[in-house]
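Predict fold of Peptidyl-prolyl cis-trans isomerase; 148 aa.
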Amino acid sequence: MSDYLIDDGMEITLHFTLTLEDGTVVDSTREKAPATFQFGDGNLPPGFENPIKGLGVGQGGRYTITPEHAFGQHNPQNIQTLKREDFGDQEPEIGMVMSFADKAGTELPGVVKTIDDERVEVDFNHPLAGRTLTFEVEVLNVTPVTKH
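Predicted 3D structure, encoded as C-alpha cells:
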C-alpha cells in the first residue's frame, strides 16, 4: 500500500461505477479489472478528476457530476441532417453509432436518430451529454508515474 495521494504526476488504480439519475449503470469496473490511468492525462474529464484529487488508497466516495463537468450540455446544433445518398452502400439504422470524418479528417461518432427516404438525422452529441451522473470510486493504488 502506498501513502501517496491522488494529484498530478500520479498513476491511479481504482474501481468505479458510473450511473445515470435513475440508477442505470453506464459503466463499471466492479466485475472486471480496475482502471489504471495517469491523473491529468485526459482519460477522465476534469469534473471526474476534481472530486478524487487528494484521496489515498482505501478511500473513495460517491460524487454527483453535473453535465457541465461531465460531457457537456446537449447541443441541438450537434444534430445534423445528411442526405441518404451520402451513406452509399451503408444502410443506416435508428440507434446505430456510425463514424464520420469532419472537415479536418477527425473521426466523429454520431448516433442515427431518424431516417426517411431522402434524409438521415445524426446526433453528434456525446451520448451522455446533458446527463447528471453519479461517479462512485474506490481507490486501490496511487503511485508516482515512472518514465519508461
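The chain has one helix and nine strands.
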